[in-house]
Amino acid sequence: EVMDKKKIDIIAILSLAVIFVLFYSIFLKDDIFLYRSLGSHRDSLKSAITKDLALIEAQKGKQSEIMALEEEIKVNIDMLQKGNAVPYFLNYTSSLAGRYRVELLSVEPGEVLVGDLFTKSIFTTTISGGFPNIYNFLYHLEDDWKGVKVERLTMDKNPGDNRVNVRLTLAVLSI
Questions:
Q1: For helices 82-99 and 131-144, what crossing angle results, to 10°?
Q2: Is residue 73 predicted with pLDDT exceeding 70?
Q3: Could you tell me which residues come within 8 angstroms of residue 125 by beta carbon, excluding any fewer than 6 positions away?
């Protein structure tokens, strides 16, 4: 009797195991496989989102750079307009001279050459200062504002001190 009870228990446990395996193979196998594949797909989506967020942040930086360049272009076009170019040039030159400790001795207007695409106003400017300061002034004069070009330059050293006097012929372009 005890042996029969053990056999019945073993048969019951084996029956439950067989029923579980059949139930799993018939009903749950596809669901478990789908669950695992969805988990894998979710992980790949998370990875893609992380990459996309980094790309979006990089693009935001580029967008702000583009907007800054567009603003700079607008300002440059405004500066190069015929009515604004000469007054802006005078203010800019004076400000730049102060920044580089260069003395602006004179600015004399010269001829104005009117072309189809642009107008070229010639100025003769005399400046004085230390050579490195003069160099920085001239470099930024042409580099910062693309509408100014140095056409001629003469330089004399002042024997009394280490200053140089420079006479420039500048072309200011306007559209």
A1: 150
A2: no
A3: 93, 104, 106, 107, 108, 167, 168, 170
Backbone angles phi, psi at 17, to 5 degrees: -65, -45
Question: Order of strands across the sheet with 148-157?
Answer: 103-114, 119-130, 163-174, 148-157
What element of type H or E holds 174? strand 163-174
The amino acid at 92: Y
CA distance 111 to 95: 24
Which amino acid type is present at position 29?
Answer: K
What's this model's pTM, rounded to 2 decimal places? 0.50
pLDDT tens for 100-128 read: 999 989 888 888 888 777 788 888 989 99
In whole angstroms, give the CA distance from residue 82 to residue 51: 49
* 172's tokens: 């200011």
Which tokens go with 42?
Answer: 């979710």
Could you tell me how many residues make up the chain? 175
Return left, alpha or beta for 101; rule: phi > 0 is left, psi -120 to 50 is alpha, else beta: left
pLDDT in tens, 51-69: 888 888 777 777 778 888 7
CA distance 37 to 30: 10
Pairing state between β 119-130 and 148-157: unpaired
